[in-house]
Specification:
Layout lengths: L1 E8 L7 H15 L5 H9 L1 H17 L5 H31 L6 H30 L16 E7 L2 E13 L5 E5 L8 H16 L5 E4 L6 H9 L4 E4 L11 H21 L14 H27 L7
Parallel strand pairs: 5-6
Antiparallel strand pairs: 1-3, 2-3, 3-4
Length: 319
């Protein structure tokens, strides 16, 4: 078995403070039309604030290039004050709507639930925006998507793409090239230093025994991990060493594991092709992004299976 981690990019615009606040204003204005009488009245009362916020966004986008950083920060701070006032009014309207006896249609219930989520998300986001304006640093756990607030930034260090926005996954490649995928529960759940061992634990839980040979890149190397893998009865441990450390395997086994290690990157690249839809899926929730990720891996495995069966029967697949 070979394992690695990767990022599943979400289909969201590049996150910035003004863009997130603009999306909040637009989404609240749209959802309030279907969310019941109390929230329709809120939209009517807040109509002036909506218009003022939209005007600030327009000015920011049109003239930000000609402004200094201090001037742009003042525009963001002004927008934040306006959005905070809207969110406070929204909170009161939601409280009134909760005690209202009026009945809502299915679409009305969905719209109201969406407004509740938007209110809660913006309540968390505004302090993060003010922290950035005050210190110049991004707050820990910064919200990067208004509609899927569970998303996070993933530092990859790649040329041309140092940061990706989405979810972390652990990918395991089995003999024959088939893939298994694990979605991270949180941003720090599937770090290389952790997944190098937990990938073997998942393998044991699924198959009842450890892999005979196992490879991982240098991100998973440590004396602690080497000892943990030996404890789990992995015969050939091929963690790529760091610095002056030496490989724990040699000869043909080392060459085999290095070759297999390179192929897991190819498998990850394949599921990220638009044919399988692992990256930037049309999903509006973390749960749906997880489903799209697993469907991409399933499609990859079924394609590989069909090709292997065709080879055995001396058949040739077209298309």
């Amino acid at each position: 078995m070979v394992a690695d981690t990767t990022a599943q990019e979400a289909d969201i615009p590049h996150p910035n403070e003004m863009g997130l606040m603009a999306a909040f204003v637009t989404a609240v204005a749209a959802a309030s039309k279907r969310a019941g009488q109390a929230l329709k009245q809120f939209a009517q009362r807040a109509g002036g604030k909506f218009q003022a916020a939209k005007e600030k966004v327009r000015k920011y986008r049109l003239f930000a290039k000609d402004k200094t950083k201090a001037a742009k920060n003042r525009m963001v701070a002004q927008m934040a004050r306006g959005v905070e006032a809207i969110n406070e009014q929204l909170g009161k309207a939601l409280s009134a709507a909760a005690t209202s006896a009026s009945r809502l249609s299915k679409y009305g219930l969905v719209a109201r639930a969406k407004m509740v989520r938007l209110h809660e998300t913006m309540h968390k986001l505004l302090p993060q925006i003010r922290y950035w304006l005050k210190t110049g640093f991004v707050a820990s756990g910064k919200i990067i998507s208004l509609h899927i607030p569970e998303l996070y930034s993933i530092v990859r260090g790649k040329v041309g793409k140092t940061v990706e926005f989405g979810l972390s996954w652990g990918i395991r490649r089995l003999r024959g090239g088939f893939l298994l995928a694990t979605l991270a529960k949180s941003k720090n759940d599937l770090l290389d230093s952790k997944f190098a061992v937990s990938a073997v634990d998942e393998h044991i839980a699924l198959f009842g025994k450890p892999p005979e040979a196992y490879a991982y890149d240098r991100g998973g190397w440590s004396e602690k991990n080497l000892a943990a893998l030996k404890t789990r009865k992995v015969k050939e441990v091929g963690l790529a060493p760091r610095g002056k450390a030496e490989w724990k395997v040699s000869g043909a086994i080392k060459e085999k594991l290095v070759s297999e290690r390179a192929q897991v990157e190819g498998g990850i690249g394949t599921i990220k092709h638009k044919k399988y839809g692992f990256n930037r899926p049309a999903a509006r929730s973390v749960q749906m992004m997880g489903a799209c990720g697993q469907l991409a891996v399933l499609g990859f495995n079924l394609t590989k299976l069909a090709r292997e069966l065709a080879k055995r029967r001396d058949m040739q697949l077209v298309g």
